Every structure is written in C-alpha cells, then in structure tokens.
C-alpha cells in the first residue's frame, strides 16, 4: 500500500517537472580525448534518455533545468550534471579504477557489482582467451577461488569442473547457462565468442536456478554488437605445438628381467632372449612403449574472425571460428571445430525490442584408443614394435611384434598395434542453438520489462567405429566390425520474466518474477555389422551379423521463481529469491528453493569516514543462505522394469532361442538432493582501489545425497538417498595492481580455497562402501567422502631376525623384503579388522597465483596453480595384484628392497608378487597427489596504433604463450590430475607453446 | 496494448499448464515397466522362465567360480602363466583361507550365485502376475510347472552356496524393502539344506518327466538328481537310494556310448544328460553367438594357436594323472586329460607348455576341450557352440551304488554300468573307497565333486595337505560382502 502511494507521488512529481522542457546537446569523450559512441545519457529518476552517436554527440529533448543528467559508459566513472540553464555539455569521463559500477550478469538479470550480496566471480573475455584451450573452462583453472578444475589431455575434451567441493557422487559439473540455454558443458563453444562469464558460487546467487543449481552455476553471455558503432572487424588466432614435457619412465628390459626372475617368471625373459637376443641374461630389445606411443609434438590452432557494430535501432555481431587440435598419441586422434555465430538485437519501437541469435557448431573428432595407454604401462619392454621373424599368419596386415610368442596371455597386446587398429573412431556432431526473444516496456513511466525468450538446442551426432580384420599374435579380430550410432537431442528452455525496477527516495527495489518450462529429449539408434566390404555401410556386412539397438531419455521441468533485490542508499542490501521446481525425474514432483542475502557497505556510512584516512576506499560485509536442488541424477523410474528378448535374457534350448524376460525389481523412490549453503563474506578495496581483497567463508551441506550404492548379497546397484555431506572452507582472493609513471604497470594476485569435506549423516548406516571389491573406499560420519580403506604398512622386514622375532611374519611365511603391517587392533593377527582409512581424494586446499608486469606495449604475465592434500590411488601399479607379468614404472623398479637397510618403503622384487604385499589396498599404492604448476606464461606486445595505421589496421597485438610448461608433483604418473583420485589410464596432458596475433581492421 | 494482452494470455496458458502435474508425469524412455506386460497373454508366460535359464547360464559359467569349486580337491592346481598369476587361488589350495578373504574371485562367486537366487524370485513375481489371469486347471498346472522350472535353478544355486560356504543366508523376498539395505543374517547349513529339499519337492511334484518342446529344459528327474546330491552331502542314504532308484527305473536315461564325445559337440544333451548350461552359435560361422567364453578359455592350452587356445589355468595335478595311469584308464584318460606337447585323438596338435611352478608339463582339463573339426567354420573361440554339463546320469548311478552300499542293496549293477561304458572291467566286493575312486575317475573336475566327496566322507584331512577337519570345509565369507552386510559376521539366525 505504501509502495503504491509512493509510486503515485513519484508520478505526479514527474509530470510536474516535465513542464519547462527544452532540448540539450553535447559531446562525451574519454580522458584521452576520444569521443565515446554509445555512451548513455539519462535524466535521473526517469527512463528518458539517449545514447551518443558515432561522434560521441547526443541530443536530448524535453529536459527541464531542474533535471540531473546521468552520463555513463562501461568502464568509466559515471557523472551526474545538473542541467540548469546550459544547453550544451562537453563531458569527459574518467576511467573507473574500481569495478564497483561493473554490471554483473546474474540469473535472469543484471546487477551492479556494488549491490551484490553474494560472491560472484566474473571472468573477462581476455582471461578466457589467455590460454590455448578448446574449452573456456580450461583457462579458468587457478584464476577463481572455489572453482576446482581437472583437465583432460584428450583432444577437444573439456575439463571436469567442481565448485566448492564434491557434494555427491553424481556429476559434479556446474550448470552452464549460455544466453539463457541450460547446458551440461560448454566444450562446443569457441572461447572467443564469450563476452563475460559469471560464476555463481553461493546459494543466494544460484538459488534462482533451483533444482539445477546445486553444483553452482556458470553464466555465459556471448558477444553482441553495440548500437551506433561502425563495423569493427577483428582477427584473433594462434598456432601452437603440444608436447608432453614430463613423462612417466618405465622399467627397461634389464630391470624388468630382474623383476620377472624374482617373480618366478623367468620363462618370459628366457623366451625373449631366445627370440630377440640378449647377453648376460639381459634382453637385447628394450622398448619404451610410451616413447612409441607419444608424438614428439602435435599442432593446435585457433582462428577467429568477428565483426560487429550497429545503428540507432539495432546492434549486430557475427563471428566465424575454427579450432583444431591433434592428439598427442601417435595415432589418428584429432578434434576439429567450426563455429558460426550471429546475434542481432533490434528496437522495433521505444517499447518493444526483439532479438535473435544462433550458434552453429560442427565438431569432428577422431578418438584415440584409450586402452593403448594402459597397455603401454603393463606391456613388457622385451619385444619390438615390429617383428621380422613372424610365423606365417601370426600377425597381419602389419608385421607387429607380439608378446604372445613369448608366452604372455592376451591380457597383453602390442600397444602400438592396439592404437593403430582401434583408431577409427569417428564422431561428428552438428549443433544448432537458436535463441529468440522479445522484450516489452509497456509503460513510459515505469521501468517494467516483460521478457519472453525461447532457447533451443538441437544436436545431431553420428558416431562410427570400425575395427579392421587383423591379427597380432593371439589377439585377433577375425572379421572386421563396424558400429554406427546416431544420436539426436532436442532440448529447450522457455523463460518468461517480468522485471520491475523501482526507486523512491533512497530506496531501490528490483523485483523479478518468472515462469520457465524446459524439456530434454535424447534418442539414439545403433547398428553393428561384421565383415563389411565397405566400411561406411552396415548393409555391406554379413547378414547374420547385423544387430540393432536403440534407446533414449526424456525429462521435463517447470519452474516458477521470483527475486527481490532491495537497497537503501546502496548501503544496506537485501536480496530474496524463491523458486519452485517441478521435475519429471523424481517421484516427489515439486521442490522449493528459497534464498536470502544481506549486505552492508560499511564504507558508505558517515561514521566510516575514518576508513578513508586508513586508505580503505570500500568495505562491504555480506551474508547469505539458500537451498539448492540437484536433479542431475539419472532419472529414476520407481517401478520395476523388464529386459527381454535379447541373447542375454533368453534361454537356449537345443540350439534354439526362446525369448526370455528378466524382471528388475530394484528401485527406490528418490527424494530431491538438496544443498543447504551458508556464506559470509567481506570485500574491501584499499589504497586508491589498487588493492582488492575478497574473503568468504562457506558451508554447504548436501542432504539426501544421491549415491549409487552396491547392494549387499550381490543384488546389484541402486541409487539411494544415502545421507549428507558437508563441504566448508574459506576462499580468499587478493589482488594488487598499480602503475608507476606513464609506461610501467604491474599486478600481482593470489587466491586460495580450503575445502573440508565431511560426511555428516548416513541415515543410520555405519558407513558407506563404494569403490571396487578389491580396492574399496569408505565414507564414515565425521570423515571425508570416499576415503581409501585398507592396511597401513609399517616399513619392510629387513632381516631374518626381524621375521623370526615377529609371530605375524612367521604365521604368514614372510621373508625379508615383505611389508610389516600395523596391527591396529593389537590382536597379533593381520586381518580385515586391521584396516583403517588411508586418505581421501578430496583436496585440502587449492590455490592460484597470477602476476603481470608491463612496460609500454610489452606485458609479461604468468599464472601458477596448485592443489594440496589429495591422496590418489595408483591403480596402474596395483594391477600387479592380478597380473604378475606387468611391467612397472622405473621409479618402482629402482626403489625395491634389495637387502637390509636398502629401503623401508618398498617390498623386494620377489615381494612385489606376493599378495601379502600387493594383493590388497594398502598405503603403498596411495600417493600424494599435491602439485604446483606453472599454468601459463605469456609475453605480449601491443603494436603501436601509429604503426598499424600505416597499413590501414587498428590496434593489434602479438603474443607468445606457454601453457602448462612444467608441473611439480611427486606421484608416479603422467599427471597428478586424475578424476576421482584414481590413476589408471590417463591421457597425458601436453604442454602447449603457441604464437598468437590479434588484429583489428 | 495488443502485445500486453498477448503476454497475459501466454502467462495464463503457462499457469494452466503448471497446474497439471501430468505434464511432468512421464515414463522414462527405454524402459518397459513390469506392469505394462500383457499378463493376459499366457503365451508370454514362458518368458520369465527362459530368462532364468539365461541368468543361470551366464552366472554359473563365470570362469572365476570354476577354480574356486575345483582346486581344493586333489585333481587340479590353478595353473596359469606363473605362480603369481591369480596367486590368491594358491591360498585356497593351501587352505590359508584368511588371506583369500579379500580375493575378487571369492566375492564374484558369491555375487553370481546369489544373483541367480534373486533372479528366480524376481521372475516368479512375473509368473504370479500371469497366474491372476489364468482360469483353466490346465493353465494353472502349467504355471506351477513354470514356477518349478524357476525354483530348480534357485535350488541349484543354493546347492553350491551350501557346499561352498555352509552357513549362508536364505533370501526371503518378503524381507526385501527396496530403499533399505537388505542385510540378512546367515542360516545354518542344515536349515539351508532343508530349504533346498522343500524347494525341490515342489519341483518334483510339478515338473514334467520329459521336456520335448524345449530340449534340455529341467525335468522332474533333474530335480530328483539334485535332491539326491544334497542328500548325499547330508549322508541321508535312504533318501539318496529312493531318489536314484526312481530315476534309474523311470527316467529312461542311459549312458552315452561315445564317451570320447560326451563333453564335445556330439554329446550335447546326450541321453545321460540331466542338466546342461546351453550355448549355441546358431550353426552359423559369423554373427551373434551365445558362448561360454572364459569358462572354456581359462582352461584352454597356453601358447597354442587359436582356436585351441586359452590361458592355461586348471592344470591337472601329477597325483591325479598317476591315479588314472595306475588304474589303466584309457577311455576316460582321453576325455579327462588334454596333454600339452602331444596330438589329441581328434587330431589337434597341442603346443608344449612347461610351467616353471610344476615338475611336469601341462595337462589341461580335457572336459573343456573342443576339437577344431567340431567347430562351425568361421568360429575361432575355444569351446564355441559347446555346452557345459552340470548333472548327468553317471553321477546318479554312482550315488545309487554308494547309497546301496550304506543301506544294503545292489551295489554292483549301477557301479559296473559306469565302469563298462568307460571300458573298465567289472569288479565285485565293492568298498566305499572303490566308489570314491570311481567317482574321482568318472567325475573329475566337474563342479567340485571331488572336494565335496572328500569332505562329506571325512577323508579330506587324510588326503589333502593342510586340510584341518572342522576348519577348512567351508570358504570364508567374502570380505566385501561382510563390509556391505556386517550381519554376515554375526550369529547364525534360523527362523
């Protein structure tokens, strides 16, 4: 009621003031004297306003002398000028040292940075393109506190992203919202097309996305044009080479032979020497399979051409991009991407604005065979890639050497042959993402905007995998095989919002309400055939061998939401959101997600004037709470289902199949997975905005955590609401940047995030068991999620005397060089009751450091990034447990116990093959996954405009980039960045060295 | 304000839409809810039965179960490329059970057998749904028969569970509340066997005497043979005698003459077969096949070219070979033993394999051997198109002889019938040791028979090195299962 009255008064006032109208003109420049096109000139407290033209000039009618003009431009300090009796204004806007006026994209709207009540990290276009990565998220690593990124070396594959710790076993990737479309990843998007990226880290900001927001939200706005601007054409591109700078060294033939003799496997060594030669019991051939499998260098390149501009009524942007990356495996893997994008906004009238944008992507990918990496680790080094002395028909079509003629079984196969014959794995994805919107401001007097936007995402994927006929020893593909899969996706999000910005006196209120409907459809169709005569067509295969299969998924969601953002004098800030979400994935259809945020800008207070003398320019404290949902769990049917008719579910009777059915009665009624998050933060800017500090404490508790559990008694696996887990910690970001004199500038900054992961509830169960049967992981209340669970070693028995003195050693027939285990319960026996938690794969803290120095046009910038306190499980080494003829890494071969006093941490060569030492999960297989990485070093030079102008070109830059040139780490693998903390068969992540150019025409 | 009205209409439309939850209530794609099967169509009713055969075929043929069943006897050692190749099996051979508690094969075997149990309960529920729509006596009797076919497989799984673990849980489907982990306690081995009897009695009552439509499907006599095997473990010789007498008298089974081919393609579903895991390549040289896979391959000759090639596991022990030689077994030698460095009677040359952990060259399990010339041209997998024999008439005859020896009766007829087929002269004055030796020669490396024979007759401790009576009869509960269900380590609870 009061509000209505206030509105009425405001309207009357407005009409009264409009009486002595006149026309004013002017020009707006920046502090270098250049005219600013597209600057905004607005009569304060009204919607009356205009923008400057190409020459920075403006004309505004109907202005009264009492009006105040608000003149603003992105990145400049706004000015307010009383009109008075002047008719012509020359305004110079200064650059804004603070980012307080920066407009930040928030869910379904925007806000000024200074009015935010939650921590939202924004990443600029420049930062996103600072690294040579196919996906924009790769470049974010180490730059934003609270965002953990695990990269992949596979061409075109995006990183795993998690915001503020791991909440549930299900997909921890955040929600990406690209111009309104909900997406699971943005790997298809060219980093050059991104204008801004906002990471909504806490619940108060993310809750407006309700059920999709539990893992955090990344909002992305693609580049658009600007009104009243001449067409600008720009080229941005680089060419680089990828190279694996840090390799895992494997044991050579001599070391391997020693191990095999100790293992009682000397027959392999003897066979190798008999076949391939050797002296003094050392095989002549010593193949480093990783050397054979890794290319010395592979190219990566990116080219992007964009043009944008606009007139009084419209703005446009178009771009064309190409990205290409070859795999580092000595095979055929590559990733190619072509992006085509257009965005047009048009003012139909002063009230109606419409727009259309579209992204067209064509991705082509050839996937290397990942298991070749694992084969390179386990295969013995004693034979060569090619063999000249093969028996007839032993290997064809290529004369690859094989381990089988040395007596190895088919668990082992020539890694190079494996990579070669299984390299024809092609996928093509064509993606079309149109977006259309209309925005209506029906009232002149009120800033009320209705907006309806339809976002669609069509994907069509064609996957072809072909394996030729081949034989490598006993590994044989008798008939060639072809598999073709077509995928079809159709997703849409239809958003309808109304936003009302309202101010009275010192009060500002923005209200937003909306309704959103979405649907995701996915269908696939697969066919296979063998013995094809044409590898493009299934119908050229043998009729009996042809099979077909299909499937799909479908989800629907519907949401109603509202947000109220209020401030008093930009001093006291309050934000409220509410979202109701309906989802077809749950039996409980509707969920409700509220949030609350409050902020206090202390530095705005009168009593805080003392702060200024203490060099504190800005100080804000804020707190927030919210509930988020997670529906990124596999849809749950809540009813029994039946598989039937196929070979696996049908009985055979005298050679004939009788169609069968298998009833699956295992299901649960899942409840919504919820995240309850609290955040307290402080932001300050000091020393003339040169020092920025932002610190947040967060506490997010995932409730009804949906976890795929292994059921007792072998009754399968089941998704269950298994309890709660809490991630809490502190995020601190500090940045200092300054200029010395006119030509020298520098900046240094750092960020750190601590993560404490604790299980808080397991619905009464004593623990949660996950992982494999042999290498289990356990989660206890009060402990971290997914801790490795096994035996703790206590050194190695050094002498026979030590064995004789220990009843445990005697009882188990141990020898010097075997592990001594900690008898944790002190019962004199080592058994399953002695198992303890041995560490978990969740990091204790992650950090990043970035620095830059610039002199005139030169800038040297570097980013460092690290993770601390991760335990990773060396699954590759542990494979020796099942496969005693495996090769091992050189580090292990060099560190085996060789006699009393030689080592107290590794068993003897013989002991490596005793299940007592290696047939169980113990801390010997667990390694410290901490690392510190030189993430990026970049040297750039801005070519003086005066030089470029001679060639008819604008501002331009050349740069040299080194991505991930070196990492400090101690684990025995290619990289400590392994998903889930399990290092099994990881594609090496190459370093990238590139040369780039930015040109403005 | 025309656009405004449009918007209002639009919003109204949406609100109407949101009021109906039906829009969100959709079935996930790619799944057939169990209540959408047409249960009134009784011709579909065999589907759930056929599904249980498929599950049993897949689970009982898991290779890792096979050494677990057989290596504790005195016939085979695990074999493989080296001593450390799946080295945990050696712990079992040496009766060092404690160290094998975490062994993956132990867990997989447990899981496989209980999977069969769960599958039978799940699919019986489907039969129940059909039953509601059945009217005629004849149809209801058919439903009973189908139930009995399913239940037979459950009894078979429990037979192995009770022999391997002794005290183990009986799954009560009524106790399973999905969403709450089902954590049963163990039952005693006695109550477990009583439960198997009960189940098999239902089977014997409702199963047909012959299965003409579906070859190799279980009959009344298969159920009786299985029940006799359980009774033998309990030393209930009266029951063994009456069951085996019935089979001998009424089933019309006879021993297959061509003993060499009994375990090969011509012997599939031979007249002496009571139950087999059935596989097929559909008589085509390419395309899909239902194949016993690693069950054959792990027993196949190492270092030998395909198709007669495998991993070289399950090597016959010297004492077993000496035993066979000492008896002058020729017919059964050729079937039981696949010698490396020799050519088989069927003409396949087998590359020599001299494992460094044995004093003799490798002798593989001949009952997994399939000659190349019996394979469909185009197929290249060891054992392709062959079945795995589970219950056969020779065992019934030997059980009958043993029971008669214990309770009085004609021992010699059934006993010498088995010998005659194997080309051995009949003997008289038959003792229990004669019968156990005959079983060892006839039933070598078949489903753990030898170890179970030694255990049930109390001879294990004297024959097997390291075996202690009262301690090593049963395998330890897999560690992973105890972790998932701590009640397995708790007290035995019989209802």
Describe the structure.
- Chain A: Belongs to the TonB-dependent receptor family.
- Chain A: It is a multi-pass membrane protein.
- Chain A: It comes from Carboxylicivirga sediminis.
- Chain A: Its main location: membrane.
- Chain A: This is TonB-dependent receptor.
- The complex is a heterodimer of chains A (1001) and B (495).
- Chain A has 1001 residues and is mainly beta.
- Helix content of chain A is 10%, strand content 48%.
- Chain A has a 22-stranded antiparallel barrel. In chain A, strands 10-15-16-13-14 form a five-stranded mixed β-sheet. A four-stranded antiparallel β-sheet of chain A has the order 3-2-5-6, with no helix packed on it.
- In chain A, a hairpin with a 6-residue loop joins strand 32 and strand 33 (590-601).
- Chain A starts with a helix and ends with a strand.
- The model of chain A is unreliable at 5-18 (pLDDT under 50).
- In chain B, a hairpin with a 5-residue loop joins strand 5 and strand 6.
- In chain B, the strands form four sheets. Chain B has a two-stranded antiparallel sheet.
- The longest helix of chain B has 29 residues, at 137-165.
- In chain B, helix 2 (47-60) packs parallel to helix 6 (137-165).
- Chain B has 18 helices and eight strands.
- The radius of gyration of chain B is 26 Å and the shape is globular.
- Chain B is mainly alpha-helical and 495 residues long.
């Amino acid at each position: 009621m009061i509000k209505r009255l206030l509105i009425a008064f405001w309207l009357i006032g407005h009409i009264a003031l409009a009486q002595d109208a006149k026309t004013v003109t002017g020009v707006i420049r920046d502090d270098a004297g250049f005219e600013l096109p597209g600057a905004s000139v607005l009569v304060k407290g009204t919607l009356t306003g205009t923008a400057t033209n190409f020459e920075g000039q403006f004309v505004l009618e109907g202005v009264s002398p009492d009006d105040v003009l608000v003149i603003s431009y992105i990145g400049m300090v706004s000015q307010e000028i009383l009109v008075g009796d002047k008719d012509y204004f020359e305004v110079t806007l200064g650059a804004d040292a603070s980012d307080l006026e920066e407009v930040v994209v928030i869910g379904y709207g925007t806000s000024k940075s200074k009015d935010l009540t939650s921590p939202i990290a924004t990443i600029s276009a420049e930062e996103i393109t600072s690294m040579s990565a196919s996906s924009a998220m790769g470049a974010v690593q180490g730059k934003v506190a609270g965002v953990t990124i695990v990269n992949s070396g596979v061409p075109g594959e995006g990183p795993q992203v998690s915001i503020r710790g791991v909440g549930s076993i299900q997909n921890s990737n955040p929600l990406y919202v690209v111009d309104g479309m909900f997406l699971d990843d943005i790997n298809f998007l060219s980093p050059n097309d991104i204008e801004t990226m906002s990471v909504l880290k806490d619940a108060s900001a993310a809750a407006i996305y309700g059920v999709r927001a539990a893992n955090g939200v990344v909002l992305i706005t693609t580049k658009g044009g600007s009104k009243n601007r001449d067409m600008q054409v720009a080229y941005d591109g680089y060419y680089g080479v990828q190279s694996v700078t840090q390799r895992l060294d494997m044991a050579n033939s001599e070391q391997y032979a020693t191990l095999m003799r100790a293992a009682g496997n000397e027959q392999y060594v003897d066979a190798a020497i008999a076949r391939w030669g050797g002296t003094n019991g050392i095989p002549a051939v010593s193949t480093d399979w990783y050397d054979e499998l890794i290319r010395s260098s592979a190219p990566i390149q990116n080219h992007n051409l964009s043009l944008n501009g606009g007139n009084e009524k419209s703005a446009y942007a178009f771009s064309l991009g190409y990205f290409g990356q070859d795999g580092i495996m000595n095979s055929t893997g590559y990733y190619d991407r072509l992006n085509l994008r257009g965005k047009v906004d048009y003012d139909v009238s002063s009230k109606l604005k419409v727009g259309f944008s579209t992204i067209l992507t064509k991705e082509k990918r050839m996937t290397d065979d990942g298991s070749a990496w694992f084969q390179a680790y386990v295969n013995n080094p004693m034979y060569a890639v090619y063999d000249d002395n093969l028996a007839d028909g032993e290997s064809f079509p290529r004369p690859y050497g094989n381990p089988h003629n040395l007596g190895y079984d088919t668990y082992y196969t020539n890694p190079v042959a494996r990579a070669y014959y299984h390299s024809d794995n092609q996928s093509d994805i064509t993606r079309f993402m149109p977006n259309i919107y209309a925005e209506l401001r029906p009232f002149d007097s009120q800033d009320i905007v209705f907006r309806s936007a339809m976002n669609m995402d069509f994907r069509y994927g064609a996957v072809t995998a072909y394996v030729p006929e081949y034989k490598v020893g006993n590994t044989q593909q008798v008939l060639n095989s072809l598999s073709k899969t077509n995928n079809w996706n159709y997703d849409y999000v239809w958003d309808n919002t109304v936003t009302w910005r309202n101010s009275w006196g010192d009060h500002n209120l923005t209200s937003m309400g909306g309704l959103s409907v979405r649907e995701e459809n996915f269908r696939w169709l697969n066919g296979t055939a063998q013995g094809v005569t044409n590898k493009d067509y299934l119908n050229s295969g043998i009729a009996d061998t042809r099979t077909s299969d299909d499937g799909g998924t479908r989800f629907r969601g519907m949401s109603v939401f509202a947000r109220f953002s209020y401030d008093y004098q930009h001093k006291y800030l309050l934000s409220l959101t509410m979202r109701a979400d309906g989802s077809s994935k749950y039996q409980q259809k509707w969920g409700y997600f509220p949030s609350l945020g409050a902020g206090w800008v202390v530095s705005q207070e009168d009593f805080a004037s003392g702060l200024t003398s203490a060099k504190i320019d800005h100080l804000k404290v804020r707190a927030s709470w919210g509930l988020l949902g997670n529906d990124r769990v596999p849809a749950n049917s809540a009813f029994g289902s039946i598989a039937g008719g196929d070979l696996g579910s049908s009985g055979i009777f005298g050679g004939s199949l009788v169609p069968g059915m298998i009833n699956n009665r295992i299901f649960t009624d899942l409840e919504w997975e919820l995240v309850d998050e609290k955040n307290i933060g402080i932001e300050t800017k000091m020393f003339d905005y040169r020092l920025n500090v932002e610190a947040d404490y967060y506490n997010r508790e995932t409730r009804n955590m949906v976890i795929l559990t292994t059921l007792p008694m072998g009754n399968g696996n089941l998704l269950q609401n298994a309890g709660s887990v809490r991630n809490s910690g502190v995020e601190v970001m500090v940045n200092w940047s300054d200029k010395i004199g006119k030509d020298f500038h520098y900046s240094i900054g750092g960020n750190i995030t601590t993560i404490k992961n604790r299980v808080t509830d397991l619905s009464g169960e004593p623990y949660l068991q996950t992982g494999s049967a042999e290498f289990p992981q356990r989660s206890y209340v009060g402990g971290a999620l997914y801790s490795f669970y096994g035996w703790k070693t206590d050194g190695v028995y050094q002498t026979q005397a030590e064995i004789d003195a220990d009843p445990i050693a005697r009882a188990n027939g141990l020898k010097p060089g075997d592990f001594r285990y900690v008898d944790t319960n002190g019962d004199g026996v080592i058994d399953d009751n002695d198992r303890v938690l041995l560490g978990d794969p969740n990091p204790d803290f992650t950090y990043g450091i970035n620095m830059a120095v610039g002199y005139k046009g030169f800038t040297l910038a570097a980013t460092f990034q690290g993770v601390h306190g991760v335990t990773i499980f060396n699954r590759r080494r542990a494979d020796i447990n099942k496969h005693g003829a495996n090769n091992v890494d050189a580090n292990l071969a060099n560190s085996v116990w060789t006699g009393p006093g030689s080592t107290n941490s590794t068993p003897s060569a013989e002991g490596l093959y005793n299940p007592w030492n290696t047939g169980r999960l113990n801390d010997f297989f667990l390694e410290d996954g901490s690392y510190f990485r030189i993430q990026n070093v970049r040297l750039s030079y801005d070519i003086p405009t005066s030089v470029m102008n001679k060639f008819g070109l604008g501002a331009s830059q050349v740069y040299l980039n080194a991505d991930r040139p070196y990492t400090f780490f101690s684990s025995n693998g290619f990289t400590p960045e392994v998903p889930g903390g399990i290092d099994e068969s990881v594609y090496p992540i190459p370093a990238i060295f590139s040369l780039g150019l930015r040109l403005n025409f | 304000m025309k656009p405004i009205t449009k918007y209002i209409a639009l919003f109204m439309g949406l609100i109407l839409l949101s009021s109906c939850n039906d829009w969100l209530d959709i079935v996930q794609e790619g799944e057939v809810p169990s209540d959408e099967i047409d249960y009134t169509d009784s011709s579909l009713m065999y589907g759930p039965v056929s599904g249980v055969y498929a599950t049993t075929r897949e689970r009982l043929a898991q290779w890792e179960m096979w050494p677990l069943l057989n290596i504790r006897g005195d016939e085979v050692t695990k074999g493989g490329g080296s001593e450390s190749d799946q080295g945990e099996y050696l712990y079992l051979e040496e009766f060092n059970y404690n160290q094998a508690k975490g062994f993956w094969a132990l867990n997989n075997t447990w899981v496989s057998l209980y999977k069969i149990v769960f599958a039978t309960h799940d699919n019986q529920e489907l039969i129940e749904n059909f039953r509601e729509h059945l009217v005629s006596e004849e149809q209801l009797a058919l439903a009973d028969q189908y139930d009995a076919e399913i239940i037979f497989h459950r009894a078979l799984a429990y037979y192995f569970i009770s022999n391997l673990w002794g005290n183990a849980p009986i799954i009560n489907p009524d106790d399973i509340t999905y969403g709450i982990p089902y954590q049963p306690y163990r039952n005693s081995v006695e109550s477990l066997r009583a439960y198997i009897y009960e189940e098999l009695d239902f089977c014997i009552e409702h199963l047909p005497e012959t299965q003409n439509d579906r070859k190799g499907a279980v009959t009344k006599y298969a159920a009786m043979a299985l029940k006799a095997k359980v009774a033998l473990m309990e030393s209930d010789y009266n029951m063994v005698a009456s069951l085996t007498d019935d089979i001998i008298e009424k089933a019309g089974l006879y021993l297959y003459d061509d003993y060499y081919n009994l375990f090969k393609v011509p012997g599939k579903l031979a007249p002496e077969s009571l139950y087999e895991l059935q596989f097929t390549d559909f008589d085509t040289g390419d395309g899909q096949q239902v194949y016993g896979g690693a069950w054959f391959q792990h027993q196949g000759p190492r270092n030998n070219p395909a198709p007669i090639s495998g991993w070289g596991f399950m090597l016959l022990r010297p004492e077993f070979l000496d035993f066979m030689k000492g008896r002058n077994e020729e017919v059964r030698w050729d079937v039981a033993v696949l010698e490396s460095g020799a050519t088989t009677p069927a003409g396949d040359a087998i590359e020599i394999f001299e494992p460094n952990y044995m004093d003799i060259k490798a002798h593989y399990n001949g009952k997994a051997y399939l000659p190349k010339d019996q394979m469909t041209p185009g197929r290249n997998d060891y054992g392709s198109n062959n079945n795995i024999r589970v219950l056969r008439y020779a065992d019934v005859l030997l059980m009958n002889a043993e029971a008669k020896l214990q309770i009085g009766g004609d021992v010699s007829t059934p006993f010498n019938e088995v010998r005659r087929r194997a080309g051995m002269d009949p003997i008289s004055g038959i003792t229990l040791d004669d019968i156990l030796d005959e079983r060892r020669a006839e039933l070598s490396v078949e489903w753990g028979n030898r170890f179970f024979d030694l255990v049930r007759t109390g001879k294990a401790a004297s024959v097997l090195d390291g075996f202690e009576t009262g301690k090593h009869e049963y395998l330890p509960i897999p560690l992973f299962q105890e972790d998932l269900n701590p009640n397995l380590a708790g007290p035995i609870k019989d209802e």
